Every structure is written in structure tokens, then in C-alpha cells.
Amino acid sequence: MKKIVLYGPESTGKTTLAKQLAAHYNTLWVPEFMRHYLEEKWKTKKEMVSKKDLVPIAKGQLELEKESLKKVEKLLICDTNLLELKVYSEYYYNGFCPEFIQKEALKNNTAMYLLTYIDIPWEADILRDQPNNREEMFHIFEAELKKNSFPYQILEGNKEERLQKAIEIINGL
Predict the structure, then answer these.
(1) d(CA 55, CA 38)
(2) What pLDDT shows up at residue 16?
């Protein structure tokens, strides 16, 4: 069983690519739990993310992955994982990341990280807030992969080019 994680800054095409890859390989993709959680929080309380949300978000993401792993045989595509949550936590909270997330994020059970580059247009939504520092964020994401010696490939180009490169990478595994 191989797990592929789409990973990178906001608005870099991860969800679109996750759906495309799942369709291509006739498998499941795991959505980003944080998006669902925070959209619901905004609708009901008009509040954005806070430190107290981080562990529930992490546990929700892990549960989605666990349930999806039970339903696939060869390949699981993840829109994100806890390493991304760790990066954002440390970025937004001045180096703070709950110990639970740090521990879980560094368990390397991922066959390949597909790091999405910032060469597609940024699209605004209620949760996205960093249109002007995408290059900085990209380098932070890449540095985390390098620091932990996690396997990764960078995906650049338009949607079709990214899809074709991702398929080549996955087929090579």
C-alpha cells in the first residue's frame, strides 16, 4: 500500500490534483479535514482557527486517513497530512506546535510527498490569507521535507502538466 501526500502552500492546486489522481488510479483521496472543520467553525461561530483547534484538526485528519486506508488496496491519495499542519502551526504561532502533532507528523508512512509549486494563480477564499508570501511559504514547506529526509518531488506547471508528472512519479514507485 502506497500513500501519496499532496503538500505545499495554500492555493497551489492540491485538492484539484488529489481528485484527478484518485480518478486516474480509481482509488480514494483523503480531503483536508482542517478546511471542513474551519469552514464549519466560521459558519457557526464566525471564528477563525485558534491554538485550541490544532489537536482536534489533527485527530480528524488522522481519522479520515485511517478510515480511507481500510477501503483501498494499493494507493491512497492525501490532499494534505499532519506535516502541513505542523508547518502552519509553527508559522502562525511563532514556533508553537502541540507535541501530539509534532510526533504524529514525523512518522514517515508516506511513499512520496508531491510538493506543489506556487506557479498557479492564487484564489481567495474565507480561509486563505497569504497571497503575498507564497514563495516564502513554499521554501518553508520544502525545508521541512529536507530537514526530515522525507521523499518528495516538486510539481510545477499547469493542471495537466502537474497531473502527468504526478502520474509518472507514482508509476515509478
Answers:
(1) 13
(2) 96
